[in-house]
Each structure stands twice: as structure tokens, then as C-alpha cells.
Write a structure and sequence with these properties.
Layout: H1 2-15, E1 26-27, E2 37-44, E3 50-57, E4 76-78, E5 87-88, E6 100-102, E7 114-115, E8 124-126, E9 134-135, E10 148-150, E11 158-159, E12 172-174, E13 196-198, E14 220-222, E15 244-246, H2 257-260, E16 268-270, E17 278-279, E18 284-285, E19 292-294, E20 303-304, E21 309-310, E22 317-319, E23 328-329, E24 334-335, E25 342-344, H3 355-359, E26 366-368, E27 374-375, E28 392-393, E29 401-403, E30 424-428, E31 436-439, E32 445-447, E33 451-454, E34 458-462, E35 468-469, E36 474-475, E37 478-480, E38 486-488, E39 497-504, E40 509-518, H4 537-546, E41 553-554, H5 558-563, H6 568-577, E42 581-582, H7 584-592, H8 598-607, H9 621-627, H10 638-649
Parallel strand pairs: 3-4, 4-6, 5-7, 6-8, 8-10, 9-11, 10-12, 12-13, 13-14, 14-15, 15-16, 16-19, 17-20, 18-21, 19-22, 20-23, 21-24, 22-25, 25-26, 26-28, 27-29, 31-40, 41-42
Antiparallel strand pairs: 1-2, 2-3, 30-33, 32-38, 34-35, 34-39, 36-37, 37-38, 39-40
Helix pairs in contact: 4-10, 6-10, 9-10
Bound molecules: 2-acetamido-2-deoxy-beta-D-glucopyranose.
Keywords: Disulfide bond, Leucine-rich repeat, Repeat, Signal
InterPro entries: Ig-like_dom, Ig-like_dom_sf, Ig-like_fold, Ig_sub, Ig_sub2, Leu-rich_rpt, Leu-rich_rpt_typical-subtyp, LRR_dom_sf
Organism: Cirrhinus molitorella
């Protein structure tokens, strides 16, 4: 809702409606209708022209008709929240200067009871919150000067093609929160000067091609809360002067990039609260006047991909907040955003923001990162770097580290540069990765896996058949895309099973697994549905209950320990049980069983990948600590990570 408020604020700014002036009402000494209040009050026209308007306030008086003997000089007549169901021209006779009439929140059921034939000075008519069901032809014929018409929060199901005939001066039309199921282009032929159209909150699921074509003067369009699933390429064609558009709270599953390309003057774009999963390469490209973009409150959003935003030379503010699954912003997500000053990324699931991302924004002044699970030992090195120009943190007092444990609850800003590592382990965020997914037979499935790390990790998948799939390889119905998404085309019962994603760089690897259930297929055994988690202490603890402990330990290399989180258990076992030697081969037998436990799949996944030689043959975790860390990684070496887990797991 906050987003809508902000959006409307933009709209106001666009129209230059100033409202910060506080001007007192003045007495107006006239015979005033019974119970009403007559005062001279400040008033702004829809085009922001200021007036001191003789005003009669008769709101909330249980009136069933207009009061008699209204003063002739009345310019503003407020009758909201009464029980009026009809008005006749004769009741307004002589009010030659009436500019605003407020009949909102009354009992009108039809505009036929609005028998106004001639109010030449009326600029603003409020009919919101009545019970209008239909607008007939020329429903507002006697109002040739009308600039502003409020019909929101009625029960409008249908509007005749020529309903707005005679309103050729209209600037703002509010049709939001009605029961319209289609938008008819013919309505707009009568409104050549319209600048603002609010039509959200109607159960419209499709915008037809050229739906708004006649509205070449339109500057602001609000399509919020409508149930829109997609926007076709030509849906917004003709809106040559549109500056602001809101798709807040619809059902869009991807950015309507082709349609947006038809809006050459767009400055403000609100896509908040849509079920978009990925912001993809080219989604926002060459929008030369875009100033502010909002991608907030998206339950499904998990990733901002490479070149998602490219060549937006006037973009100054980007808001990507309150997206509970958003854990990945590609280091090169932003390209040629030369004016970007303000980057809002708070309240997501981001563990870090890559320094490359920050450096790609030459005008960046402020950044908001609070309420994210930030890993302070890693990838956040730009924070304290001296050679870069300073970027201001918004709410630095509440921007905390959540990892590693020794930095937990420290303020990100206060972590010294020395405490951060040059390189770090990949991390597949738990929020992006469900442990269980059910799909319908025949569906196309996309399983997304993204990991932040330095150096950039490579990603591969291990599918139930035990095959390891790397990006750009394909196998049967499977394909892995460069970004890390596994696609399955036309899924059948055969594809049900256990899938593991491995993200790996030279520091180590992270793995996560999920069970894919195909509707109608056999249930995959429950024990494979356990959530796989990475290097989280509590998760390791949980697993110790679920997986039986071996009596002794295989001959593991530290790299194995680092790479495969579940194997930390075995390490834990050694720490707990004293650790006699144990043949790796003995364990392999168990590992050979097809997708029975998480451990099996993970180990397989690991075995399929090469181990950097320098990590081999080191058994002592303390050795890892001294040899395997990055040069700045005093507190952050993966070896220590493993050691910590070991201790905790006992
Ligand atoms: C209407 O407004 C005009 C111009 O401000 C003014 O001269 C005229 O007296 C007003 N008429 C009435 C009835 O108040």
C-alpha cells in the first residue's frame, strides 16, 4: 500500500499539485443552509490553480436531498456521506460559479438521477463510493468544463462506448475499484486531453491491443490490482506521452518488456507485487527516460540476472525491497546506469552484494541493505575500501551481519576491511530453494539455482539418474542454462526424484537438493525429502539425528569436508568418537545406492567434480586453516568453518 501511496505522490508531482501550503479558512458571512458550514477555503484546480473558494460544507448530515437556498456565490459544495440518490438542475440553479461538487459516499444507483444539464463552471465532480452500476451514453453531458471525474468505488459493470461524450476537457478520470471486466478503447475517443487514468481494482485480466490508443495525452496510468497475467506487445501502443505506469499487485510472471518498449517517455515504473521469479537479461533495456523503478514485495522473485538492467541513462532510483526469496543479484546485473544514485535493497534474502555491482554504478550515493542475511566476511569488501568513493548506508545502525558467527550482530559498516576475505565459498541461499516441488505431468519445469561467491562459482545439477549436467549440456528432457536453472520439458513420472544443485569454486562448494514429485506419479520415498542445507550449525545438528553415525571416519580430504556439507557429519563423528581410520571405499558402497539419502547424492555429486590438487591430502583441519585460506581470511577460512561445525555438532 505504501507503494501505491508513493506512486500517487509521483502522479501528484507530475501534475504539479502543490499541497504543502497551509492556508487557513476564513469566515464567509452569508445566510448558510441549516446545519451546513459556510467558509472561504483554499482550493486548487486540477491544474493546480489556487483559489480562495466560497465553500459550503454539508457533509455527514443524513441528507436525502440537496439543501435549499444555497448561496449564489458558492464555488465548492461538499455533500459527501449523506443519503442523496438524485440531484436536479433546479436545485443548483443560479450557482454559476460552482466549480466543485462532492457527492461521494451517497446513494446514487444511476447517473439518470444526476439530472445536471448545465453547470458550465464545474471542474470537479465526485461520485465515488456510490452504487452506480452502468454508465449510459453521454452520462455527464451538461459539464463542458469538467476536468476531474471520480467514479471509483462504485459497482460499475458496464460503460457505454460513448459514456464520456462531451467531456473533452477532462484531465483525470478515476474508474478504479469497480466491477469492469474489459477496457473498451471507444470510451477514450471522447477524452483527447486526459492525463491521468486510474482503472485498477477491476477484474480485468487482459489489456487488448491498442486499448489506450486514443489517449495520446495520457501521462499517468494506474493498472493496479487487476489480475493481469501478461501484457501483449501492442497493449500500450499509442501512449506517446505516458510518464508513469503502475502494474502493482497483478499476476504478471515476467516483465512485459516488449510492451514497455512502446512507452518512449516513461519515467516511473511500478511492477511491485507481481509473481515474477527472474528479472532477466534485457528486461529493462534502452528505456531512455526511466527515472525510478520499483520491484518490491515480490514473493517469488529469486534472481536479478546478468544485464537485467541495461542502458537506462536517466535511472536515478532503483527499489528492489521486501522480496523474501531474492538472494541473488548477478555481479553484472546493472549495465550502463550512469545516473543511478539510490539503490534500495533492504529486506531481501541477499547474503552479499558483489563489489562489481557497486562499481558498475558510477553515480551511486546511497544504498540500503538492512534486513538481509549479510555474510560479512565475504563479497562485501567494497564497504570499507578506501580507494572507492564512499557510498552512504541508509540506516547503518540497523544494517547487521548475520554471518559468520564471530561477526554476527556487528554492524556491517563497522566490520574492518581486514576481516573480509578475498575469496569465499559459494552459498546457495535456502530461501531460493524449496526442498519439495510438485508439478503436473506434461508441464515444463524450471528449477533455479543461484550462488554468490568469489570467484564466481560454476553450477551443475545431479539428476535422479545420477547424471551430472553442466550448463549448456542437455540430456533427455533436461537442459541446464548458464545462469544455473535446470529446465525439464514435458515432465513425466520418470523425472520424479531427487535433484541436487552444486555450486563450486576453488574455495569449495555448496549443495542443495530438492525432491520433484510428478502429480500422478509414485511418491518418492519420504526420507529423500529432507531439506538439504549448507553450512548452518543448527542444520548439522538436525542431521545428526536423522543420519546414522558411522563408527569411524573415512579418509577424507579437507576439500571434501568443505565441499559437501553433509559430510561434515562424518567429521563431526570423528571429533565426537575419537576418529579411528576408516576406508573411503567402505563408505562408497553406501554411496553407490541410487538416490536414497541426501548424503548419497551429495557425495556422488562431489565425486563427479574435480578436486583442486592443492586441497588434497590434508587431514588436519588446522592445516587447512593455515594453508587453505585467502590472504585476508583470518576469521573466515573454510577450514575453520568446518572446525566450528564439528564442535557444534557434538
Ligand atoms: C462569479 O465569478 C465571477 C468572477 O470571479 C464574479 O465576477 C461573479 O460575481 C461571480 N458570480 C457570483 C454569483 O458569485
Amino acid at each position: 500500500m505504501g507503494q501505491i501511496a508513493i506512486f500517487l505522490l509521483h502522479t501528484h508531482l507530475l501534475l504539479g499539485v502543490g499541497s504543502s501550503l497551509v492556508i487557513q479558512s476564513m469566515p464567509w458571512r452569508v445566510p448558510c443552509p441549516h446545519q451546513c458550514v459556510c467558509q472561504i477555503k483554499p482550493w486548487y484546480s486540477p491544474q493546480s490553480v489556487y483559489r480562495e473558494a466560497p465553500t459550503v460544507d454539508c457533509n455527514d448530515l443524513l441528507l436525502i436531498q440537496l439543501p435549499t437556498s444555497l448561496p449564489q456565490e458558492t464555488q465548492t459544495l461538499r455533500l459527501q456521506s449523506n443519503l442523496i440518490s438524485s440531484v436536479d438542475q433546479s436545485e443548483l440553479q443560479g450557482l454559476v460559479n460552482l466549480t466543485e461538487l462532492d457527492l461521494s459516499h451517497n446513494s446514487f444507483t444511476s447517473t439518470r438521477n444526476l439530472r445536471i444539464t448545465d453547470l458550465p463552471a464545474l471542474l470537479s465532480l465526485h461520485m465515488e463510493e456510490n452504487q452506480l452500476r452502468h454508465l449510459p451514453e453521454a452520462a455527464f453531458f451538461g459539464l463542458p468544463s469538467l476536468q476531474e471525474l471520480y467514479l471509483n468505488h462504485n459497482r460499475l459493470r458496464s460503460i457505454s462506448p460513448g459514456a464520456f461524450k462531451g467531456l473533452d476537457k477532462l484531465l483525470r478520470l478515476h474508474l478504479n475499484s469497480n466491477r469492469l471486466v474489459v477496457i473498451d478503447r471507444r470510451w477514450f475517443h471522447a477524452l483527447p486531453q486526459l492525463e491521468v487514468l486510474m482503472i485498477g481494482g477491476n477484474p480485468v485480466d487482459t489489456i487488448q491491443d491498442l486499448n489506450f490508443k486514443p489517449l495520446s495525452s495520457l501521462r499517468s496510468l494506474v493498472l493496479a490490482g487487476m489480475g493481469l497475467r501478461e501484457i501483449s506487445e501492442r497493449a500500450l501502443e499509442g501512449l506517446q506521452n505516458l510518464e508513469s505506469i503502475s502494474f502493482y499487485d497483478n499476476h504478471l510472471i515476467k516483465v512485459p518488456k516488449e510492451a514497455l518498449q512502446k512507452l518512449p517517455g516513461l519515467k516511473f515504473l511500478d511492477l511491485n507485487k507481481n509473481p515474477i521469479q527472474l528479472v532477466q537479461r534485457g528486461d529493462f533495456r534502452n528505456m531512455l527516460h526511466l527515472k525510478e523503478l520499483g520491484l518490491n514485495n515480490m514473493e517469488e522473485l529469486i534472481s536479478i540476472e546478468h544485464s537485467a538492467m541495461e542502458n537506462l541513462p536517466e535511472l536515478t532510483k532503483l527499489e528492489i525491497t521486501n522480496n523474501p526469496r531474492l538472494s541473488y543479484i548477478h555481479p553484472q546485473a546493472f549495465q550502463k546506469l550512469s545516473s543511478m544514485e539510490s539503490l534500495m535493497l533492504n529486506s531481501n534474502a541477499l547474503s552479499a552484494l558483489h563489489s562489481q555491482t557497486v562499481r558498475s554504478l558510477p553515480s551511486l550515493q546511497e544504498i540500503s541493505l538492512h534486513t538481509n542475511p549479510i555474510r560479512c566476511d565475504c563479497l562485501i569488501r567494497w564497504v570499507g575500501a578506501d580507494n572507492d568513493k564512499p557510498v552512504r548506508f541508509i540506516e547503518p545502525q540497523s544494517t547487521f551481519c548475520s554471518e559468520p558467527p564471530e561477526l554476527k550482530a556487528r554492524r556491517v559498516k563497522e566490520v574492518s576491511f581486514r576481516e573480509m576475505a578475498d575469496s569465499c565459498l559459494p552459498l546457495i541461499a535456502p530461501s531460493t530453494f524449496p526442498s519439495y516441488t510438485e508439478v503436473k505431468h506434461g508441464d515444463n519445469v524450471a528449477l533455479h539455482c543461484r550462488a554468490l561467491a568469489e570467484p564466481e562459482p560454476s553450477i551443475y545439477w545431479v539428476i535422479p539418474q545420477g547424471v551430472r549436467l553442466t550448463p549448456s549440456s542437455s540430456y533427455g528432457r533436461y537442459q541446464v542454462l548458464t545462469e544455473g536453472t535446470l529446465e525439464i520439458f514435458g515432465v513425466t513420472a520418470e523425472e520424479a526424484g531427487f535433484y541436487t544443485c552444486v555450486a563450486q569454486n576453488l574455495v569449495g562448494a555448496d549443495t542443495r537438493s530438492l525432491t520433484l514429485q510428478v502429480e500422478g506419479g509414485d511418491l518418492v520415498r519420504a526420507r529423500t525429502q529432507k531439506t538439504e542445507d549448507s553450512f548452518e550449525v543448527q542444520d548439522v545438528k538436525e542431521r545428526t539425528k536423522e543420519v546414522s553415525m558411522p563408527d569411524s571416519l573415512p579418509d577424507l580430504t579437507p576439500a571434501v569436508l568443505l565441499a559437501v556439507s553433509a559430510l561434515l557429519l562424518l567429521f563431526a563423528a570423528r571429533a565426537c568418537h575419537g576418529g579411528a581410520s576408516f576406508g573411503w571405499k567402505d563408505h562408497m558402497l553406501e554411496l553407490e545406492k541410487p538416490h536414497t539419502t541426501i548424503l548419497t547424492q551429495e557425495a556422488k555429486a562431489f565425486i563427479a567434480s574435480p578436486i583442486p590438487v592443492k586441497y588434497l591430502n590434508q587431514q588436519d583441519p588446522d592445516k587447512v586453516l593455515s594453508d587453505g585460506r585467502g590472504k585476508d581470511g583470518r576469521n573466515t577460512s573454510p577450514g575453520q568453518d568446518a572446525r566450528r561445525l564439528t564442535k557444534e555438532a557434538c
